[in-house]
Backbone:
């Protein structure tokens, strides 16, 4: 029996719809508030901040892509063009590392497409790009090694060759170092000059008597052994 003041519940009565109820469930209140927020446009300053942030992110991504993209520059050591006649690499050759900071050796043409150069830049290397006294640049292969000098085969004629002297020059003998501005001196004073390694040194007759190497004497003498190596490397007539 029910106490006075309490209504008897109606079994099976369906729940009232929200518009007929004086109360709301918490989940219904949250859903209504969310819907109102979605319908209201964002404030202008919020949209401005979002746009600026998005553009800044795109700019940062573009800068990162530019920083990590490899450049298309050609390595100066193996640059192409008329001055650099670079030939294909035979499988048996050991090549110089292609580094933009390396110094190309200077080679002196001596005829038949051959040239002389100090041996040090070719230690463990059979081919590399060299500079010639006339300013041109060419690929050179080692064909003979004689103590501190190498005989090179040039990928081209190498320009005007220097005739090789058939006698040794003395330290007091007047010579000329072949540079863009030729220097007159004596063979014994070559070491006092700041000359590039491989710079040709000729006597008063214009014959090659030495090449500079930066040693204590400053030169490598073009002696009988070097002359013999040049003759051995020359192509057969």
Residues:
């Amino acid at each position: 029996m029910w106490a006075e003041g309490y209504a008897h519940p109606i079994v099976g009565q369906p729940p009232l719809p929200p518009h007929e109820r004086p109360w709301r469930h918490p989940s219904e209140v949250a859903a209504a508030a969310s819907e109102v927020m979605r319908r209201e446009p964002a404030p202008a300053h919020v949209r401005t901040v979002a746009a600026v942030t998005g553009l800044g992110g795109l700019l940062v991504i573009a800068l990162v892509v530019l920083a990590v993209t490899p450049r298309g520059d050609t390595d100066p050591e193996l640059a192409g063009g008329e001055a650099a006649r670079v030939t294909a690499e035979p499988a048996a050759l050991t090549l110089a590392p292609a580094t933009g900071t390396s110094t190309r050796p200077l080679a002196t043409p001596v005829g038949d497409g051959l040239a002389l150069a100090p041996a040090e830049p070719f230690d463990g290397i059979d081919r590399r790009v060299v500079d010639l006294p006339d300013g041109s640049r060419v690929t050179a292969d080692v064909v003979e090694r004689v103590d501190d000098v190498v005989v090179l085969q040039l990928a081209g004629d190498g320009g005007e060759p220097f005739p090789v002297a058939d006698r040794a020059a003395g330290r007091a003998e007047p010579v000329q170092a072949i540079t863009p501005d030729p220097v007159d001196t004596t063979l014994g004073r070559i070491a006092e000059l700041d000359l590039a390694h491989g710079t040709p040194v000729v006597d008063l007759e214009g014959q090659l008597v030495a090449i500079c190497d930066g040693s204590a004497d400053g030169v490598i003498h073009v002696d009988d052994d070097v002359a013999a190596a040049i003759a051995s490397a020359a192509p057969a007539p």
Summary: The chain is about 20% helix and 20% strand. The CA atoms of residues 81 and 213 lie 29 Å apart. The radius of gyration is 42 Å.
